[in-house]
Write a structure and sequence with these properties.
Length: 431
């Protein structure tokens, strides 16, 4: 079957750097996946994706090594358990993320994510955008994740009965890292859909193909963007937010100790490991797994769950939580393992890095991006690494830039064009 990769992007499919193979991204609102769905993904991985599932820094899953023949089969099998990945790639509203579902108020934010996801996913009105449009709902601004989105919603007062949101827009990393700015404050929940729609419409109408919202703002300025957005009829539109019985699937935490984070090294899971985690989630976590922005799996244990039993079962499944690979928070993108434009083997670099870290280094968050597109969000980690270029000449060995973050904004580049040996030396010197 002849495949036009461009046309398949909206279905969440990208070609791999290895010709004839494809990646299928699985869109998970707020990173939430049921045990039933996770089991199906594990089965599909075993049959068609060399037995491996990758977790992304935006709470999605990815299956690699699919072929033109297996893509339609995989799409049907996923759809049979409600996994529809429309808009997971291409010029569309991408998966809506929420890095804050650990909190006791998670149910409120999950509902907002699902509201946005269901409005924009698969809606043809928002599928011919100039480029991707990334949305996040975050509990606060402490993590800095609101800074890297095309649009982020942050509640004014998370404890309030009636939520309202500050709306941040036009952020992004890549080759031109740009922090988002505050577009509008205190937008009530019933105006959220209209406001997001207004921003997306302005983006679609005024931005050249291939450019993000941050590029439009660089051209016209923040004030003009605000003027254009507020002139959209939908910006002031209030839509009824009728309570849904299925807006929240994640069990609310009764205490922080009931949250169990399973360290997944470099976001790479065997299908059999994912199936085992699904079993544990079914027994002890309301049948729900959360994919985090650090590419781990989180379980919210129900009140009946016995923590010791859960730990035992995790250890039996291979997750003892004691190895460096499980404990160090190190995000990676696919890099040159599978990505078309990757310049470095990110997972191998991560494996070397975690062994080099001293006592201070293991406590930091790390992120390794295989090219300056920065998909692993290195500027938001305590220490970030970008494979910035290849050495000239025959060898074409990767060269690395190192970033350190200390304040509320993006990390700053502290070293550039390091060889792998020089990078590891600097990593080891962190202490
Ligand atoms: S950062 Fe670069 S190498 Fe990594 S996934 Fe993104 S585009 Fe690919």
């Amino acid at each position: 079957m002849a495949i036009d990769p461009q046309k398949l992007r909206l279905e969440g499919i990208y070609p791999q750097r290895q010709g004839d193979f494809y990646m299928q991204r699985i869109k998970l609102p707020a990173g939430v996946i049921s045990a039933l769905q996770a089991r199906r993904v594990a089965e599909i991985a075993g049959r068609y994706a060399r037995g491996t599932v990758h977790l992304t820094t935006r709470g999605s899953m990815e299956l690699h090594w699919l072929t033109a023949e297996t893509l339609p089969v995989v799409a049907r099998e996923m759809a049979s358990v409600g996994l529809i990945s429309r808009g997971a790639c291409g010029g569309a509203v991408r998966g809506v993320v929420c890095g804050s579902l650990d909190l006791a108020v998670s149910t409120k934010l999950e509902g907002v994510v699902r509201l946005i996801h269901s409005h924009f996913s698969g809606n043809p009105r928002f599928e011919s955008l100039p480029k991707k449009f990334k949305i996040a709902v975050e509990a606060d601004i402490a993590s800095g994740r609101h800074l890297i989105q095309d649009l982020a919603l942050v509640p004014v007062d998370l404890a309030a009965d009636e939520l309202s949101f500050n709306v941040w827009v036009a952020g992004g990393l890549g080759r031109q890292p740009t922090p988002a700015f505050l577009l509008a404050g205190d937008i009530p929940l019933d105006r959220v859909i209209g406001m997001v729609e207004a921003v997306v419409r302005v983006y679609a109408a005024h931005t050249p193909a291939g450019k993000r919202l941050k590029h439009l703002v660089a051209e016209i300025g923040q004030d003009e963007l605000r003027r254009l957005v507020l002139a959209e009829p939908s910006a002031g539109e209030a839509l009824p937010t009728v309570a849904s019985l299925s807006s929240s699937l994640v069990p609310t935490l009764s205490s922080p100790e009931r949250r169990v984070e399973v360290g997944v090294f470099a976001g790479e899971l065997a299908g059999s490991e994912l199936a085992a985690l699904a079993e544990i989630a079914d027994k002890w976590a309301g049948g729900i797994l959360l994919v985090t922005g650090n590419q781990n799996i989180v379980l919210h244990l129900t009140p009946a769950a016995e923590l010791d039993r859960v730990r035992e079962e995790l250890a039996y499944a291979g997750f003892t939580g004691t190895s460096r690979r499980e404990r160090v928070l190190c995000r990676v993108c696919p890099g040159s393992h599978e990505c078309l434009v990757g310049l470095g083997a990110t997972r191998e670099i991560a494996a070397e890095l975690v062994e080099k870290l001293g006592p201070a280094g293991v406590k930091l968050t790390w992120a390794i991006s295989g090219c300056p597109n920065s998909c692993a969000q290195p500027q938001l980690a305590d220490a970030g690494i970008i494979v910035s270029r290849l050495q000239p000449g025959e060898a074409k060995a990767p060269l690395f830039d190192l970033y350190r973050r200390s304040g509320d904004g993006f990390g700053e580049r502290t070293a550039e064009r390091l060889t792998l040996a020089e990078l590891m030396q600097q990593v080891g010197e962190i202490g």
